[in-house]
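Before relying on records like the one below, remember that each one covers exactly one chain. Contacts with other chains, cofactors or solvent are not represented anywhere in the record.
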Amino acid sequence: MFRKLILVTLIGLLVSCKEDPKLRLNLTNGEAFGTTFSVQFIDEKEVSFSKSYDSLIDVINQSMSTYIKDSDISKINQGDTTVVIDDHFKNVLTTSKKIYKETKGAFDPTIGVLVNAWDFGPEGKISSLDSLKIDSLLLSVGLDKVILKDDKIVKSDPQTFIDFNALAKGYAVDVFAEFLEHKGFENYLVEIGGEIRGKGSNTIKQKPWRIGVEDPNFDEEQSYSKVISLANEAMATSGNYRKYKIDENGNRYAHIIDTQTGYPHKSNLLSVSVLTNTCIEADAYATALMSMGLEKSKQFLKTHPELKVFFIYEDDKKELKTLAVNQFPGI
């Protein structure tokens, strides 16, 4: 389902319980949304919620997966106006509209039709793609064309294609986290495909949860030059160094589509990591900032101090550089 780059990994997931025999690390790994997930929390007894996680995954998939032909979002995209959406869909749509407005359209879930056209999505590539076709497809793009009325989606343009892949994985992280909080757990770490939310700390070792930001290695090797502590926050990362296209001149284009032009984004920005309160917002803002590029992102962040951001980019000499904004934590 929600296929997106896994740019973040957990550091030291498996820890020893010998330090405090009264506490246990409850760890569950699995597959979800076309990637993997990991949920860990600390308690005095061994507890398993594997079936609950699977149920949450199924419900979210059936609501918002564009990879499932009979999901609610797929039916809506196919023109079904009778679909009554659930609270998950409403929550994601509400957040999408908020960030769409704040970023002046840099984040736009209706750009999916162009994502598919450029062969970055589930529908395959549209043949004979040219400027006229792109301009035609852009006519249906714009989240302002999507309205919620009586628990149903109304589209002013029937061709508008809704795709929540850019933030649904982050939303699922929040759903898992809220499930654990409802159960009363105060120390947990949830990760789905690299998007993460944590609360409390690793009380077994009396240390904070530690996570790493992956270096942008085009050869698919994994290395981590930045490791941070995570407490009562969420982090998501978006990048272009594994999913991109190269033109005849050697220019690299990101899988993130420019919502103004309809073309893959050409940028020196390689990855953006965002720390904030919820993972759905971290996920969406990371995508938006990648689309904006470095300079516009820096201007945007001056009015959004609640977003702690870490950029990795190439300078004019093609050398890797980093920039931390709004007190993004150091190593």
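Residues 1-18 have pLDDT under 50 and may be disordered.
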